[in-house]
Design brief:
By secondary structure, the protein is of the alpha/beta class. It contains 9 helices and 7 strands, in the order H-H-H-H-E-H-E-H-E-H-E-H-E-H-E-E. It has one domain: Rossmann fold (3-Layer(aba) Sandwich), CATH 3.40.50. The structure holds S-adenosylmethionine.
């Protein structure tokens, strides 16, 4: 019986080798040495499906890398036509294009999210799933990215983001400024490194 990977033509070993190569080149931009493990990607996908709550529109994935979270989103039943992947690294974007034919793949900087979505005609947005290494990015860059995400999301829409750190991946000043509330999943110890999935929402204006 064909596996999910063979059906989707995704070679995990090639992905891991490329990921490591890009980490050696740009460790802070990659934020991890190897792609996310299955338990973490499944948790990200579960949170995303829950956050959709029947909302129409696209699921936007930031920092898609070699597509491990993408695979989990597809396996969780999100139709490929609803997925838009954003990846800044040209080699990784080319890898994604070779392995995923249906989702929209955009090579670009997540800090320009609203512009990238407008340029590519992607609207409305139902949820944003991010594996960006927010902990290793400068505060002003994180501010710009998170502001862009909540500019793109409709009221009540969710940002799903994992972190390896002990604190929420969106800093407290930024959460307060945007009136975000976050919910924390359990730590996934069997990921390298162990990770936590957070979901952030901004309540609809009163
Ligand atoms: C920790 S890796 C996650 C890759 C994959 N989603 C996974 O979970 O295995 C972070 C990814 O974000 C990408 N990235 C970093 N900064 C970015 C930015 N500003 N815009 C878009 N992608 C970015 C990196 O190139 C890398 O592929």
């Amino acid at each position: 019986m064909p596996t999910f990977e063979s059906r989707h033509g995704l070679d995990s070993r090639a992905g891991t080798a490329l990921f490591l190569k890009r980490w050696l080149r740009r460790p802070f931009a990659m934020g991890a040495v190897i792609p996310s493990g299955r338990l973490l990607t499944e948790a990200m996908a579960r949170e995303t499906v829950q956050a959709l709550e029947g909302r129409p529109g696209h699921v936007v994935e930031l920092g898609a890398g070699t597509g491990e979270v993408t695979k989990a989103l597809l396996a969780a039943g999100i139709p490929p036509s609803r997925l838009a992947l954003i990846e800044r690294d040209p080699e990784l974007a080319a890898f994604l294009r070779r392995h995923f034919t249906e989702p929209k793949i955009i090579e670009g900087d997540a800090a320009r999210l609203p512009e990238l979505l407008a340029e590519n005609g992607i609207a409305p947005i139902a949820a944003v799933v991010s594996s960006l290494p927010l902990l290793s990015l400068p505060t002003d860059v994180v501010n710009g990215i998170v502001h862009g995400v909540f500019e793109a999301l409709p009221p009540g829409g969710a940002l799903i983001q994992f972190t390896y750190g002990p604190t929420p991946p969106v800093p407290s000043a930024l959460r307060q400024g945007l009136r975000l509330f976050g919910t924390r999943g359990g730590r996934i110890w069997r990921n390298i490194p162990p990770a936590v999935v957070w979901t952030f929402r901004r309540p609809p204006a009163a």
